[in-house]
Amino acid sequence: MTTRRFLLYLLCGFSMAILSTFFLADSHDYNYPRRLYSLHSTSVQYPAEALNNRLKVWPKLKFSWRIVLATVIGFLGSAFGMVGGVGGGGIFVPMLNLIVGFDTKSAAALSKCMIMGASTSSVWYNLRVPHPTKDVPIIDYDLALLFQPMLMLGITIGVALSVAFPNWLITVLVIVLFLGTSSRSFFKGIEMWNQETIILKKEQDKQQEAPANYHGEQYEPQVLRTEKSQLEILRFNLRWQRILVLLLVWFSFLFLQVLKNGTAVCGAWYWVLNVLQFPVALLVHGYEARKLYKESRNRRVVGNSEAVCEATIDWTALHLAFCAFCGIIGGIVGGLLGSGGGFILGPLLLELGVIPQVASATATFVMMFSSSLSVVEFYLLKRFPIPYALYLIAVSMMAGLWGQFLIRKVIEFLKRTSIVVFILSSVIFASAVTMGVAGIKNSILMIHNHEYMGFLCFCES
Question: Which chain regions cross the lipid bilayer (predicted)?
Fold first, then answer.
């Protein structure tokens, strides 16, 4: 599937889903007065039944088969989700909703807690691991600075849209997106697997042709490598200036979100604080985009084919605009779903030519900022029970460390980094399946109860 076909697929799928919302809203007879809606109307009335799914449901934390099953699913989802750099929110939300019994919004908030825990432990592990091929940090800070502001901006937009979008529409949009990205990642993994097979075959041929010593044993030329301790690797992987910029963006968004939560919805200050998030994100993104554009252009002028960062593309204005768009879309999906945005960022980094280990480490690093921001905000809003949050964070942190350790050992043994891509594709596909099951269940219930299935008014929902 080429990039153009993939984008055409997403455009057609999203358009049909959104148009069907108006059809469903107008073609069903409800047991209650239908919503009066006008593009120029400021008065919109909703039946109480349309907001039933907004009630808070918090089961007690006690030992049961539900907790055991949720722990196993959460552990495996966190482990493999962090290895693939996609988080796992598409698995956590249905699991917490269908198995444990949380309401959808509380499940999304707890999903952020799990992503924060797993991403934090994964980042700690990755910071003590050297780059597999170069003498550079394993986290690409240039790409992190390029995507993190737009991702956080998109999450803000996604959270706002989740108020007005019906749950079934969110499910359909996410399934369309996840099926497309998982398929594209799967074929990318097959391509990488075939390339690795050719490389491994060439290495075997070289070993067979290598000279032998007097015992008849093969030997390889000795290559001197400087071995670093884990502390030295940790110091080398940390780039404090870049991290401080990311923290500045994080605190700026948190400050604006806290102020916004104290204002009336759709009031003057509400919109002012929302708009102020755009210059914060665009300032940092624009600075990094300008830097990449200038460096890439200067290298092309002198005939230097070396990549500016881990991505192997030329940083033209079109490519930078596309990355900004994808960052916002990834954030919107994260805001709608309750994930960290890795379902877009992980596959996108692979498309840009970033090797799987660096793509996973960079996507996980960015998700740590976006998920932790949401967790702090949800905590201030009292959107999740503290005991459950602490338990799930502990489980996901252990899973993140275990997953990174296990998969790196497998990669070293098999000498195939394409495994990371297949894990990424599998987690996204599994998320599409679980979201589909949960969405179908809720949609059938809504249809059976003759509930309203159209758009809700943003300011009055």
Answer: 6-25, 63-87, 139-162, 168-187, 243-262, 268-287, 320-346, 358-381, 388-407, 419-440
The per-residue pLDDT for range 72-126, each reduced to its tens digit, is 988 988 888 888 777 777 788 888 888 888 877 788 888 888 989 989 999 999 8
Which tokens is 356 given?
């799987």
Q: Dump strand ranges (E) for 131-206.
A: none
Cα dihedral sign, 119-124-130-134: positive
Please enumerate in sequence order all residues whose Cβ is within 8 A of that of 353, keeping only pairs 6 or more positions apart, or say none.
Answer: 307, 310, 311, 312, 313
Long-range contacts of 243-252 (CB under 8 A, 24+ apart): 243/141, 245/145, 245/284, 246/144, 246/145, 246/148, 246/369, 249/148, 249/149, 249/152, 249/280, 249/281, 249/284, 249/369, 250/152, 250/369, 250/372, 250/373, 252/280
**Tokens found for residue 149:** 């502001």
Closest CA to 315 of 331, 327, 299: 299
DSSP 162-193: HHHS-HHHHHHHHHHHHHHHHHHHHHHHHHHH
Query: Who contacts 332 (Cβ-Cβ below 8 Å, separation ≥6)?
Result: 154, 155, 157, 158, 161
207-222 pLDDT, tens digit per residue, is 777 655 544 444 444 4
Contact 245, 284 (CB under 8 A): yes
Over residues 358-385, the mean pLDDT reads 85
Q: Which helix (H) or strand (E) holds 161?
A: helix 141-164
Q: How far is CA 58 from CA 94, 364, 411, in A?
A: 15, 29, 41
Residue 212 CB partners (closer than 8 Å, separation 6+) = 218, 219
Look up residue 129 and give its DSSP letter: S
pLDDT of residue 51 exceeding 60: no
pLDDT reported for residue 124 = 92
DSSP track, 48-67: GGGGGGGS--------SHHH
To which residue do tokens 């593009």 refer? 39
Evaluate if pTM is beyond 0.90. Answer: no
Question: Does 217 or 43 have the greater pLDDT score?
Answer: 217
- Helix (H) / strand (E) element for 438: namely helix 418-448
Percentage of residues of the chain with pLDDT beyond 90: 6
In angstroms, the Cα distances linking 42 to 266, 332, 344, 459 are: 11, 26, 35, 9
Q: What percent of the chain has pLDDT over 70?
A: 82
More confident residue, 190 or 304: 190
Instruction: Return the SS3 of 212.
Output: strand
Q: How many CB atoms lie within 10 A of CB 185?
A: 25
